[in-house]
Design brief:
The structure holds three protein chains of three kinds. Chain A is mainly alpha-helical. In chain A, 40% of the residues lie in helices and 4% in strands. Chain A is extended and about 95 Å long. By secondary structure, chain B is mostly helical. The chains are: A mainly alpha, B mainly alpha, C alpha+beta. Chain A binds chain B through residues 42, 70, 75, 146, 149-150, 153-156, 158, 230, 232-233, 236-238, 240-242, 244-245, 248-249, 251-252, 255-256, 258-259, 262-263, 266-267, and chain B through 38, 77, 80, 83-84, 90-91, 94, 235, 239-240, 243-244, 246-247, 250-251, 253-254, 257-258, 260-262, 264-265, 270-271, 273-274, 408-409.
Chain lengths: 267, 418, 189
């Protein structure tokens, strides 16, 4: 009897110690994966194909929960971006529904109370999946899916961070770490508990250009698209910058020659 | 050195203008013929660079104000609209945000130059004090400006700094409420910060005018720290220093352009690309890099009121420097002991800046950074209030050269006239 | 030697002139973005074009749509209205020009030059006198004597092709650039 009590007591104590050890696991997020993107570096540009495929991934997967309110449909036709034709962009817009202006009776909702909608035009911004923050939280277990227009600039680690999150699911939580109910294990997210379920699988989308849709490819393409969404002027900026640097270096050379000539007899 | 004007109007129009508004005369005397020591080095070009920075900030700022909306619900979106929709809006915005960092980099180099060469010493005390006033106005302008995009860091940085005023006994809370125009940072605060951010740069421009006017009474100091003794010691400002300043300005602009075009968000914080949320505090609240040393001082003192006093005291200390330094020799080139303490001071400032950017409980090599900040803050005060007075009295300076001309031109120079 | 000095002189001047010129070019180049930023942004330009769905408009009815900050009259004309507009002699009009952005400037104001399809009249609803919005005339509520529009500000009267007939307005109502995307949809601008 006493031996059983001792054994039980020791097991309980050890169990308690083990569970306290769980709280000692450092859940600092892992450093982002070392992914390369075509738009990085002083001469980097966006891969046009990746941008168009990435838009498809955003539209078919992410836009169900994430808004991208700073993007407008006409941005899809602009130079330096996916560069869809105006007809293609108009078709993509028409497939989206945005809240309609008040009708002749001044109503904005129909008989059932649902908001009146109309097809989007090129001037419209991408519609949000939810009308407001509360609706977004109510539909996502009180977590707010962040707007994606600026996500690549709004996170430390930029495109590598977003890529790591998207491809960081599926691992086994280490011993001593228990995943919170309703959340998912992702060691690239601070605290290792992320509210977003893994959004990408092999073949989640079927690319119209025939590219094989692995998780890695889908993540790479959507991150390229999101990087453009954060920085649509990147290509123009680097092009302009190159011209400016060349000009300034030549001007500096001329000024140096002038400086030496002026000061030649002064020393 | 200010002396009688040597301007001679040549055309009829110049004579007509000169008798009614002597602006060409002023420009001639201050920019064209102004006698400037012939030994000024690269560290003396930052005054001109700073004028350029101020002009850039004002021009880009006025243009941004054509598109920016100072309203809590619209501000963040208006900045993104500038970045995406306004023609070249991205360029003007990045010039303005990186221009502010360049402005402070230049001003710190300019101030450290003044400390090293003793430019604050008689008869230039007032130039130094006016300079401290410009620095204060710059910090206020930058603080107001950073709030305007209404990102997470804008909002929470404003909250932290305005909350400091509540540390003042008795009237603190009333002052904080008065600054906010509300019970917390909000739309009322944003609107008045925009108004002040637009106003202060013009006040800075006027004070810069006073700064240059005060400089032109005794004339420039120089790296040797010795007075101008004869015309051989100087050269006319144009063409010698117009071309030299222009060259170093273009080098500076190359450095500036690298950030604007290739690393535009280097000095920024990703959290500021998230719209302000009064209900969610970011894990680490940090101001822009140029305010980090003072932020580190503030956080190194556990008591709120004492922290505020230490921080503002550090800036106020700068005003007294002309009287704290007892040395008869101006330039650290000839002050071997002071030179060491100067470099240690620079290291202390950089350490403070580093500590300010880390989280409060961070540690490196096992040392809690809050203790590094405390030691560096102590050294800051000790440098000005103890080292400067004492070293000036006990130091043996090196032998000063006979004149600037002799130092620059060698023995072949004509002996200075008596 | 004199030759060397003058050579050195021109060489030195050339360097300064070249440097100054380059600096000036740089300033002009960087000035352009600051001027261009005041031009309409891409957001404003995206709204420069509007599409209008014509399917809900009945014959004899007018719909007003906002286009580039102005009211746009989209009017579905009855055969009677078209006939009365065609019957007018262009030379008797106070303003004989078409003011149609889809046609050359000096086109005459025939009814055919005022609408791509006679049934649909698309006009910028700004009175050419001082900018008020004229009121449309319908059989139930006639406005003016010509069956088109009456501007209540100062009494200008337009006919069923939007041409000025009486009153202080100097020009016919402007026809904006537009095209038919389908039988029931137009793109304006």
């Amino acid at each position: 009897m006493r031996l059983t009590t001792v054994t039980l007591g020791t097991s309980l104590a050890l169990g308690l110690l083990a569970s306290t050890a769980a709280f000692a696991v450092d859940t600092t997020r892992l450093a982002p994966k070392d992914a390369a993107f075509s738009f990085q570096g002083p001469f980097g540009t966006y891969d046009r194909g990746a941008l168009q495929r990435g838009y498809q991934v955003y539209k078919e997967v992410c836009s169900a929960c994430h808004s991208a309110q700073h993007l407008a449909f006409h941005n899809l036709t602009e130079a330096g971006g996916p560069e869809f034709t105006e007809a293609q962009a108009r078709a993509l817009a028409a497939a989206a529904k945005v809240p309609a202006e008040p009708n002749d009776k001044g109503e904005t909702t129909d008989d059932k109370g649902a908001p009146l909608m109309r097809s989007a035009t090129l001037a419209d911004h991408f519609p949000s999946p939810y009308p407001n923050e509360n609706a977004a939280r109510a539909n996502n277990g009180s977590a707010l899916p962040p707007d994606l227009s600026m996500i690549v600039k709004a996170r430390e680690g930029g495109p590598q961070y977003v890529y790591s999150i998207l491809t960081g699911f599926g691992g086994h939580a280490p011993a001593g770490f228990k995943v919170t109910d309703g959340k998912y294990y992702n060691p690239y997210f601070e605290g290792w508990n992320i509210s977003m379920p893994p959004p990408l699988k092999d073949g989640t989308v079927t690319y119209s250009d025939g590219t094989k849709a692995t998780v890695d490819q889908e993540a790479h393409d959507v991150v390229t698209f999101l990087a453009w969404a954060s920085e649509p002027k990147l290509e123009e900026r680097k092009r302009f910058g190159f011209g400016v640097m060349v000009f300034l270096v030549v001007l500096a050379g001329l000024l140096f020659a002038a400086y030496r000539r002026v000061w030649k007899d002064a020393h | 050195m200010s002396g009688p004007s040597t301007y001679n109007p040549k055309s009829g129009f110049e004579r007509w203008l000169d008798t009614r508004l002597p602006l060409p005369r002023l420009l001639h005397d201050t920019i064209h013929t102004f006698p400037t020591p012939r030994n000024l080095n690269i560290w003396y070009t930052f005054g001109g660079i700073l004028t350029f920075c101020l002009a850039i900030q004002i021009v880009t700022g006025i243009v941004l104000a054509m598109h920016y909306v100072a309203n809590a619900t619209l501000a963040f979106d208006s900045v993104e609209s500038i970045m995406r929709d306004v023609n070249y809006g991205w360029l003007i915005r990045y010039m303005h945000s990186n221009g502010a960092s360049m402005f402070f980099l230049a001003v710190y180099i300019h101030m450290f130059r003044g400390l090293y060469y003793g430019s604050y010493k008689a008869p230039r005390e007032l130039i130094w004090i006016i300079g401290v006033l410009i620095y204060l106005l710059m910090m206020a302008t930058a603080f107001f400006g950073y709030v305007l995009p209404w990102g997470q860091m804008s909002f929470w940085g404003a909250t932290v700094i305005t909350n400091l005023f509540s540390a003042i006994p008795v009237v603190g809370n009333h002052i904080a409420t008065w600054l906010w125009g509300d019970f917390a940072v909000g739309d009322a605060t944003l609107n008045r910060f925009f108004s002040l951010h637009y106003l202060l740069p013009f006040i800075i421009a006027a004070v810069v005018g006073l700064h240059i006017w005060a400089l032109h009474v005794p004339g420039n100091n120089n790296p040797l720290g010795i007075d101008v003794k004869s015309p051989q010691d100087t050269v006319p400002f144009h063409p010698y220093y117009t071309v030299k300043d222009a060259f170093y300005l273009v080098l500076f602009v190359i450095f500036y352009a690298l950030f604007v075009f290739y690393w535009p968000d280097f000095f920024g914080n990703p959290d500021n690309y998230q719209q302000a949320n009064p209900l969610v505090t970011p894990p680490d609240i940090v101001p822009e890099w140029y305010l980090l040393p003072f932020y580190a001082m503030l956080r190194s003192i556990p008591n709120k009121l004492l922290g505020v006093i230490v921080m503002f005291g550090a800036i106020a200390t700068l005003v007294f420097i002309p009287w704290l330094d007892t040395s008869r020799v101006r330039s650290c080139r000839f002050r071997p002991l002071m030179k060491q303490f100067f470099w240690a001071f620079l290291v202390a400032c950089v350490l403070l800046g580093y500590c300010g950017g880390q989280s409060v409980d961070a540690a490196r090599f096992g040392i809690p950074l809050v203790w590094v900040a405390r030691i560096a803050s102590i050294y800051y005060y000790v440098f000005f209030w103890l080292i400067m007075p004492i070293v000036g009295l006990i130091e043996t300076p090196k032998k000063l050269p006979a004149s600037i001309a002799q130092s620059v031109l060698g023995d072949t120079a004509a002996a200075p006239a008596e | 030697m004199a030759a060397t000095t003058s050579d050195a002189g021109t060489r030195r001047d050339f360097l300064y002139v070249a440097t100054g010129a380059m600096g000036a070019v740089g300033l002009a180049a960087i000035a352009w973005p600051f001027i261009d930023q005041m031009n309409p942004s891409t957001a404003a330009l995206a709204l420069a074009s509007t599409e209008v769905d014509l399917s809900a408009v009945q014959p004899g009815q007018q719909v007003i749509v906002k286009w580039r900050g102005h009211p746009l009259f989209v009017r579905r004309r009855t055969p009677a209205e078209i006939a009365s507009a065609k019957a007018v002699d262009v030379n008797s009009l106070p303003d004989p020009l078409a003011y149609n952005d889809n046609l050359p400037d000096n086109s005459p104001a025939t009814d055919a030059n005022r609408a791509i399809k006679p049934e649909w009249l698309i006009l910028i609803g700004v009175c050419t006198h001082l900018g008020c919005t004229p009121t449309v005339s319908t059989p139930q509520m006639p406005e003016g004597d010509y069956g088109g529009w009456l501007c209540h500000c100062h009494g200008s009267q337009y006919d069923t092709a939007g041409r000025i007939r009486k009153g202080p307005a100097p020009r016919n109502l402007q026809v904006p650039p537009y095209s038919f995307l389908s039988a029931t949809r137009i793109k304006v601008g």
